[in-house]
Write a structure and sequence with these properties.
Layout lengths: L1 E5 L3 H14 L4 E6 L2 H10 L6 E5 L1 E2 L2 E2 L3 H4 L6 E5 L3 H5 L6 E5 L4 H17 L8 H11 L8 E6 L2 E6 L3 E7 L2 E6 L4 E4 L3 H5 L7 E3 L4 E4 L3 E7 L3 E6 L8 E2 L1 H12 L2
Parallel strand pairs: 1-2, 1-3, 3-6, 6-7
Antiparallel strand pairs: 4-5, 8-9, 10-11, 10-14, 11-12, 13-14, 15-16, 16-17
């Protein structure tokens, strides 16, 4: 069995690799990847090089579900996640399984045994499609219950900021900030991963590690060197918003789905 690990925390990736080999000594770890961009490039360059993927849901540059927007994955995927197990159970199908962190030897053995049974039976592995990922995301959020507002600490108060008013969420000087269409800027006490998990991905896109943009705020796109995209907003924003070549196609598709 050739296994690929997609995990942005090095200690967690090393621990998982060790546990996989302990549970299934015949396993060869063919690679350990840390980001969406790196993963997309690996799948495009190494078709058929892995038999199974262990994939963390949250990566440094966004949700790993974005990988499926750029490449088709025809092998079983086992997600590693801290999400509620009951939300995930509905999606334990041929090609999608899950392991709750911290990963136990017992649960890892269960997942690998399931893979071996399916492989031995000769049953055709179902392709993991973007639609399957969309359904999984909706399940993880309780049927699509995205936030309508975010609670912001402002001076000595806590105020709600409507999601409809958000133009961009970004990191500046290690701080997470939110800018509204009216130009107000607020600080957030959450990571970009945490914020993105609360927002409807049909309306917001993780452009890169530093920025989440609202579809309503996108004014125009420009081609950038290396196949990347430069994004201009309808509101004032000083930094460049660059979408990588690996995610450019997914971004344009997302933007076209009005």
């Amino acid at each position: 069995m050739r296994a690929l690990i997609i995990e942005d925390e090095v200690p967690a990736a090393e621990a998982l690799a060790q546990l996989i080999v302990e549970v299934a000594p015949e396993t060869e770890i063919v690679g350990t990847l840390e980001s969406i961009e790196e993963s997309v490039e690996w799948f495009q360059s190494n078709p058929g090089a892995a038999d199974i993927v262990f994939m963390d849901i949250h990566l440094a540059d966004g949700s790993s579900f974005s990988i499926f927007d750029s490449v088709e994955i025809h092998i079983p995927v086992i997600f590693t996640t801290a999400y509620d197990q009951y939300a995930l159970k509905a999606f334990t199908v041929n090609s999608v399984d899950y392991l709750l962190k911290p990963i136990s030897r017992q649960e890892l053995t269960r997942a690998i045994d399931k893979y071996k049974r399916l492989y031995a039976s000769g049953e055709e592995m179902q392709t993991v499609t973007p639609k399957m990922m969309e359904n999984l995301i909706e399940s993880l959020r309780g049927g699509g219950g995205y936030k309508r507002s975010l609670l912001i600490s402002y001076k000595d108060k806590i105020i709600p900021v409507l999601v409809d008013d958000i133009a961009i969420i970004y990191i500046e000087c290690t701080m997470v900030k939110l800018s509204t269409f009216s130009g107000h800027i607020y600080y957030l006490n959450q990571t970009l991963d945490d914020v993105m998990s609360q927002l409807d991905p049909r309306r917001f896109f993780r452009a890169n590690r530093q920025q989440i943009v609202s579809k309503d705020a996108v004014k125009e796109l420009s081609t950038w060197f290396g196949g990347k995209l430069s994004v201009a907003l309808t509101v004032s924003f000083n930094d460049k918003i660059i979408v990588s070549k690996a995610r450019a196609g997914a971004f344009k598709q997302w933007l076209s789905e009005r």
